[in-house]
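Let's practice the habit of predicting before peeking. Look at the sequence and jot down your guess about where helices and strands might fall. Then scroll down.
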Amino acid sequence: MQAARLPDERRTYFPRRFSQSRKEPINQAVAGKEGRVRDHVTLAAASAKLRKRRPTPTTAVEALMYSLRRGIIELTQPDTLRRLSMFDEGQLKAICRRLQNFKPEIATPWSSEEVAALIARWRELHG
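Done guessing? Here is the structure:
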């Protein structure tokens, strides 16, 4: 025997108890006041908006640093550009500092011109 449901009741992708357990508000661009996903928002769009608020994982930073050891030529590789597009301005500054402080036995430290090219590429990716 199935339980009766009210006609107004909707299933939610982000129930209220989920946001309360994580102690963070539900993104109002994705969900309405009651914590229900708006009708015009797809699940992919909702999850992308929620992921955007999270900091970039340290593994992505390390993967980018590893690829940039090979030099400025890596700025033409799709995987490197995808990773570079994930970072905000503060993270980019930290990456630039690390590139200029490479130990010579690991990789050649980047010059200020190479770092400027990286920043210009990042700006292109961020529009």
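How did you do? The chain has six helices and no strands.
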